[in-house]
Design a protein that fits this description.
348 residues, alpha/beta, Rossmann fold, Dihydrodipicolinate Reductase, domain 2, 8-stranded mixed sheet, 6-stranded parallel sheet, 9 helices
């Protein structure tokens, strides 16, 4: 089964214009769009040479010299926008996007809840069809887990556990050294959003995020988060990005436990980073017996999951009644949980 079958696709694919030519565009956005046969018609970046290099590599026909030229091109060709920009500049760029446009914004939705609310307000004012690129929901192994759980294969879901004990070379993203928030806002936010996708809104959160002695320039690289869903449901996130002792005891997994079974997903991209190791999807359903089964899942988080948010945006621009799970209206709740995590950490 093709990984594309896990996504809702529009009847008519709109061309895409991209604002930003950084590493995430090169490594995830453009490979995903190529895989989905989405047409990327133009690209713009403050660094024109970076934009030209990606245009050459991915056969993008137009490189714009400024934002105004890109907007004019998009209007003439009925394009949707892909904004892959630092959180701090989202608002200023969004103000230049024509009213009523379709826009996918790279996460996070601003650097804090104040910016997130301002982004939401601007999207409403301009009547934008807007989404935030929380793409983990669309990772093929997550969508398969959701399908099994919705079918009742593991009974009543009561436990989600996220564990990351890995080495992440944060120095590759030097802009992070200037930020007051790092680990939760730029990494654990994915897991918060995924847990919300399965369990809805938590009653409250408890969190502590900390520095690492070998990464003192960064605001934080380790977090422990409890999302409170009452007395019968447990949802925990534990991350440590400083385990630089080889891959033997690195851990990178999600587990979902129900009353009649369980699922374990090994997330290979973070193991022995940046090389990565294979993903693994295992589950047990007591309805089918008492043995674990391994399922071969086609595709992975990178780049396949990046198809989903853009495909959904196109579906929403095509059909206003379509339920777009990456909408800014939903994403604001993930940002609210992130904010409460930082409040909890600061008040401990």
């Amino acid at each position: 089964m093709s990984s594309l079958s896990t996504f809702d696709l529009p009847v008519n694919k709109k061309p895409i214009v991209i604002i930003g030519a950084g590493g995430i565009v090169k490594d995830a956005h453009l490979p995903a769009y190529k895989k989905a046969d989405f047409e990327v018609s133009a690209i713009y970046d403050l660094d024109t040479e970076k934009a030209k290099a990606l245009a050459l590599k991915f056969e993008i026909p137009t490189v714009c010299i400024d934002l105004k030229e890109l907007v004019e091109f998009a209007q003439q060709n009925d394009c949707v926008y892909d904004m892959a920009l630092p959180a701090s500049v989202i608002l200023s760029v969004l103000a230049n996007i024509p009213d009523g446009s379709g826009v996918l914004i790279q996460k996070p939705m601003g650097e804090n809840i104040t910016q997130a609310e301002a982004i939401l307000g601007l999207c409403r004012k301009k009547k934008l069809v807007a989404g935030i690129n929380f793409q983990l929901r669309h990772a093929p192994y997550v969508t398969h887990a959701k399908k099994l759980i919705d079918q009742g294969a593991i009974g009543e879901l009561h436990d989600i556990d996220v564990r990351m004990n890995v080495y992440t070379p944060w120095h590759l993203w030097d802009f992070l050294c200037q930020l007051p928030r790092v680990e939760i806002l730029y990494h654990s936010i994915h897991y918060i959003d995924m847990i919300r996708y399965f369990l809805g809104e938590p009653k409250r959160v408890f969190a502590k995020t900390t520095k690492h002695p070998n990464m003192r320039a960064l605001a934080s690289t380790r977090s422990s988060i409890i999302m409170d869903y009452g007395d019968l449901v447990r949802a925990n996130i534990n991350t440590n990005h400083g385990h630089n002792f080889g891959s033997n005891h690195q851990e990178s997994y999600f587990t979902f436990e129900g009353t009649e079974g369980a699922i374990k997903i090994t997330v290979g991209v973070y193991l022995d980073y940046p090389k990565g190791l294979p993903d693994q999807f295992e589950y047990i359903s007591l309805k089918d017996g008492e043995s674990w089964k391994e399922v071969k899942i086609e595709g992975s988080w990178f780049p396949d999951a990046f198809i989903g948010p853009m495909a959904g945006l196109m579906c929403k621009t095509e059909n206003p009644a379509y339920t777009y799970i990456n909408s800014v209206e939903d994403a604001i709740h993930t940002m609210d949980v992130v904010e409460k995590c930082y409040e909890s950490s600061e008040n401990l």
